[in-house]
Design a protein that fits this description.
This protein has ten helices and eleven strands. It has helices at residues 16-26, 31-40, 43-46, 85-98, 102-113, 118-126, 172-186, 201-204, 234-245, 272-282, and strands spanning 10-15, 49-53, 56-61, 67-70, 73-75, 136-141, 151-156, 162-169, 221-227, 251-258, 262-269. Helix 4 (85-98) packs across helix 6 and helix 5 (102-113) crosses helix 6.
Length: 292
């Protein structure tokens, strides 16, 4: 796969397998197990390069379609076309343990092989990477949502109750912002205080909250985690959540990949008690800095 960004931004390159093994070692995974996990990856992923960029020392790998902006113009973003290598390690490890049927495993590996769906597959596993082994975790169980809808994760805990979690990767917000910046630049608009990004909250939550039963009759704590790659306005997000979502969702999280903790979030919940239980159950770190 070619690079979707200027090579002048790259400061170092390496074989993905070498960095994969190194990152796995930092997570306490032996070289033998790391090599085994790497062999499970699609050939398209294994053949890509590991790189570092001018804007950070962390090792990433090149995989994902560039954003189409207008005409022949394209753009890219982090992590959309360059996830952390350690995120690939964590996601592969979760998939191996949590996807119990061959059908589910095959479906996930097929997503991982597709540049347009690759990050969707990564964050779906990354969202639950810190769930402790004493909890019960099940993927896409039937009969828990509205009608025939399936929710991504059912998490059962001893201390914090049961949770239903839907995971969504939403790169469109980043692509929209890149297109806005490009248009402003072409028009020669210069402002000391440029317009803030516009957030399409309806698009962010398309095919998400409508899957869930109303919270008034739900037997689980219900929520959604969105991976955006860009900040959103806190006040507007909070208003949208309380005006449109809280009838079906006890919480909404904005998540991003984090080298040290796997995933960090900004969390909106119907109560402080639900916020505390959610952070505890998923072992999320609440410092994502995705709101302004």
């Amino acid at each position: 796969m070619g690079y979707p960004f200027p090579q002048s931004l790259i400061t170092a390159k390496a074989k993905l397998i070498d960095i994969f093994i190194n990152e796995a070692a930092h997570l306490g995974i032996s070289q033998t197990n790391a090599e085994r996990l790497f062999k499970m990856l699609p050939a398209s992923v294994k053949s890509t390069a590991a790189v570092t960029f001018v804007f950070g020392p962390d090792w990433r790998y090149v995989f994902g379609n560039p954003f189409h902006l207008s005409g022949d113009s394209h753009g890219f973003g982090i992590p959309h076309q360059a996830p952390l290598v350690v995120s690939l390690v964590r996601a592969t490890l979760v998939a191996e343990h949590a996807l119990t049927s061959s059908k589910l495993r095959r479906s996930w590996w097929l997503q991982l092989d597709r540049p347009s769906k690759h990050l969707d597959a990564i964050v779906e596993m990354l969202a639950v990477t810190n769930v402790t082994p004493d909890h019960s975790l099940a993927y896409e169980q039937e009969g828990l949502g509205i009608g025939s809808y399936r929710i991504d994760w059912l998490l059962k805990t001893k201390e914090d109750g049961d949770f239903l979690l839907e995971v969504k990767n939403r790169p469109g917000q980043s692509a929209q912002e890149l297109a806005r910046i490009q248009t402003t630049s072409k028009e020669g608009v210069t402002k000391l205080n440029p317009d803030e990004p516009s957030t399409n909250f309806d698009a962010l939550f398309k095919s998400t909250f409508s899957k869930f039963l109303p919270t008034a009759v739900a037997s689980c704590t219900q929520g959604v985690i969105l991976f955006l790659g860009i900040k959103v306005p806190a006040a507007q997000f909070d208003h949208f959540y309380h005006d449109h979502l809280q009838t079906n969702l006890h919480f909404v999280a904005l998540g991003k990949e984090d080298k040290e903790s796997g995933v960090s979030v900004n969390l909106f919940a119907t109560s402080a008690e639900i916020e505390s239980r959610t952070l505890s159950a998923f072992s999320w770190r609440k410092d994502a800095d995705l709101i302004y």
